[in-house]
C-alpha cells in the first residue's frame, strides 16, 4: 500500500531491540538441531501457536526458554546477522541493540562467547550493509543488584565496544531504585544509561529511572501521560521514550493499537520514537510497527516523519552523523 511504501522509503533508526527477541523460530530450530538440543515444540507452526501472551511475564518465560539454544559464538553471530539483514531490507540504517548477558552466563555460556559473536555480526553489518550501530548490555531486573555488578565486572574487558547499559525483564516489583549503585558504577566506567520503565510499571518508576539511575532515555515510558509533572520534565529535558507499539498490544499493555499513547505524546511535545522490541515474538519489525501505529492512529505524514527524525535525534550518533540522516 501507499502508506507502507512511504514508511519503507524513510531511513530509520532502531533504538529498542533485544537481540534475543529477534530470534525467529526457523533459525531457532536450525541452531537447536546443530547443538543437539530438543525444543519443546514439534514444528514452527506450534512455536507460533505458543506466542500468545497475557502480560510481560508470560512472554519473558518463553523468551528466556528460546535463548537456551544459543551456545556458541557462531550462534550469536547468526542471530545478530539474521536481524541485520532483515532490517536492512526495511531501510533501517542505524541500530542500538540490547543483549542480556545474564540469560547466557547463568547457563554457563561465557560473556566472551556472547559478545564476540554479536560484535562480529555488527561489524559485518557496518561494512557490508552500511548499518551503523551501538551496543547496550541490559541488566536483568528480576535478579539481584549483586548479579548486575558481576555482569558489569565481566563486561570491562569489552568496555570499548559496549556503549551503554540498560535495565529489562520483569518490571513490577523490581523498581529502578534496586539498581542505583550498579548504574552509578556503570556510569563511572563510561557507559551511557537507559532503562525500561513505565511499560507495565507506574509513572513512579519513570521518575526513579530519571532521578535515581540518571538515565538519558526511557525504554517504553507508556505510563507517563497520567502524570503532568512528568510530562513537563520529559518535554523540558527532551528525554526520549523508545516506544514499541506492537509489543504493547502483544503483551496487553494496551488492549488495542488505537489506544496507543504515541500520538498524544507527540502532541504534547514529547520526544517519542517507534521501535520493535522483540520482533520475532510480537510479529513486527520497524516498518510493521510504524505501519500499524500510523494506521490505527491516523498519523499524518508529518507525524510519521517526526517519529523517524526523533529516532536519530535520540540516538547516540555524533551530532554530525545525526545531521546526515535528518
Ligand atoms: C522485554 Cl518487552 C520487554 N520488556 C522488558 N524486558 C524485556 N526483555 C526483552 N523484552
Ligand atoms: Zn524492551
TrEMBL record:
Site (described: Important for catalytic activity): 220
Entry superkingdom: Bacteria
GO molecular function, one term: adenine deaminase activity
EC number: 3.5.4.2
Binding of substrate, residues: 278
HAMAP family referenced in this protein's UniProt entry, alphabetically: Adenine_deaminase (MF_01962)
Family: Belongs to the metallo-dependent hydrolases superfamily. Adenosine and AMP deaminases family. Adenine deaminase type 2 subfamily.
A Pfam entry, by short name: A_deaminase
Binding site for Zn(2+): 16, 18, 196, 277
Keyword Metal-binding: yes
Active site: 199
Alphabetical keyword list: Hydrolase, Metal-binding, Nucleotide metabolism, Zinc
A GO biological process held by the record: hypoxanthine salvage
Role of this protein: Catalyzes the hydrolytic deamination of adenine to hypoxanthine. Plays an important role in the purine salvage pathway and in nitrogen catabolism.
Coiled-coil annotated residue ranges, if any: none
InterPro entries in the cross-refs: A_deaminase_dom (IPR001365), ADE (IPR028892), Ado/ade_deaminase (IPR006330), Metal_Hydrolase (IPR032466)
Cofactor(s) the record lists: Zn(2+)
Taxon lineage: Bacteria, Pseudomonadati, Bacteroidota, Flavobacteriia, Flavobacteriales
Catalysis: reaction(s): adenine + H2O + H(+) = hypoxanthine + NH4(+)
Cellular component terms per the entry's GO annotation: cytosol
Stretches assigned to the Adenosine deaminase domain: 11-326
Cofactor note: Binds 1 zinc ion per subunit.
Transmembrane domains' residue ranges: none
Protein name per UniProt: Adenine deaminase
Amino acid at each position: 500500500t501507499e502508506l507502507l511504501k512511504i514508511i519503507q522509503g524513510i531511513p530509520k533508526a532502531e533504538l529498542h531491540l533485544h537481540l534475543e527477541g529477534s530470534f525467529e523460530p526457523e533459525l531457532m530450530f536450525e541452531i537447536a538441531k546443530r547443538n543437539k538440543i530438543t525444543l519443546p515444540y514439534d514444528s514452527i507452526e506450534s512455536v507460533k501457536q505458543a506466542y500468545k501472551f497475557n502480560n510481560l511475564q508470560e512472554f519473558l518465560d518463553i523468551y528466556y526458554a528460546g535463548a537456551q539454544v544459543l551456545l556458541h559464538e557462531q550462534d550469536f553471530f547468526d542471530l545478530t546477522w539474521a536481524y541485520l539483514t532483515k532490517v536492512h531490507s526495511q531501510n533501517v540504517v542505524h541500530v542500538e541493540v540490547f543483549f542480556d548477558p545474564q540469560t547466557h552466563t547463568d547457563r554457563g555460556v561465557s560473556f566472551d562467547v556472547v559478545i564476540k559473536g554479536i560484535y562480529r555480526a555488527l561489524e559485518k553489518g557496518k561494512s557490508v550493509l552500511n548499518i551503523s550501530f551501538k551496543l547496550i548490555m541490559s541488566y536483568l531486573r528480576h535478579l539481584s543488584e549483586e548479579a548486575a555488578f558481576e555482569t558489569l565486572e565481566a563486561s570491562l574487558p569489552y568496555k570499548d565496544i559496549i556503549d551503554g547499559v540498560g535495565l529489562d525483564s520483569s518490571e513490577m516489583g523490581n523498581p529502578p531504585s534496586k539498581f542505583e549503585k550498579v548504574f552509578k558504577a556503570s556510569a563511572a566506567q563510561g557507559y551511557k544509561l537507559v532503562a525500561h520503565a513505565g511499560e507495565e510499571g507506574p509513572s513512579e518508576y519513570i521518575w526513579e529511572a530519571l532521578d535515581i539511575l540518571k538515565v538519558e532515555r526511557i525504554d517504553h515510558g507508556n505510563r507517563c501521560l497520567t502524570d503532568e509533572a512528568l510530562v513537563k520534565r520529559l518535554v523540558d529535558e527532551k528525554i526520549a521514550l523508545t516506544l514499541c507499539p506492537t509489543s504493547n498490544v502483544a503483551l496487553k499493555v494496551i488492549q488495542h493499537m488505537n489506544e496507543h499513547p504515541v500520538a498524544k505524546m507527540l502532541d504534547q511535545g514529547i520526544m517519542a520514537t517507534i521501535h520493535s522490541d522483540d520482533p520475532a515474538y510480537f510479529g513486527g519489525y520497524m516498518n510493521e510497527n510504524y505501519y500499524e501505529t500510523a494506521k490505527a492512529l491516523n498519523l499524518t505524514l508529518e507525524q510519521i516523519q517526526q517519529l523517524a527524525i526523533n529516532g536519530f535525534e535520540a540516538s547516540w550518533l555524533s551530532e554530525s552523523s545525526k545531521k546526515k540522516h535528518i
